[in-house]
Amino acid sequence: MYILVDLILLLIGWLISSLAIYIVSRILGEKEGFGSAVLAAFVGFLIFTIANRISFLLTPIAIIIWIIALMKIYNIGLFKAILMAILIYFMLMIISFIGLPRLL
Questions:
Q1: CA distance 48 to 44
Q2: CA neighbours within 13 Å on the CB side: how many for 102?
């Protein structure tokens, strides 16, 4: 039973994180669809999960890898990827304060 609840929360968190990434990408003028945001959320989840399982000290490296992933997924430059990551972080922080689950 708990596994089903965890799976549902994971999917809701994935959807919310994807929506946040999609909104930020649209604010920054990107034309990619919601599928790119879903992929970015999943890739970010994998990167941060692997890094944190090894050591929380790898978080800065995970951030750099995720920014590179954003560059590849959205075909954008370094500055825009960094700005995108910062805006996604702040949006997800607000979502956390509201109490909604998130993936990243």
A1: 6
A2: 21
Arithmetic mean of pLDDT over the chain: 92
Q: Global pTM?
A: 0.89
Angle at 67 between CA 62 and CA 72, to 5 degrees: 125
Q: Are 44 and 59 in contact (CB under 8 A)?
A: no
Q: Between the CA of residue 1 and those of 19, 43, 48, 103, what are the distances in Å?
A: 27, 27, 26, 21
pLDDT digits (tens, 9 = 90+) for 10-28: 899 899 999 999 999 999 9
Listing DSSP states for 24-46 in one string gives HHHHTT----HHHHHHHHHHHHH
Tell me which residue has tokens 């989840």.
45
- CA 33 to each of CA 4, 30, 77, 78: distance values in angstroms, whole numbers, following the listed order: 29, 9, 18, 20
At 69, the amino acid letter reads: A
What pLDDT, on a 0 to 100 scale, did the predictor assign at position 100? Answer: 78
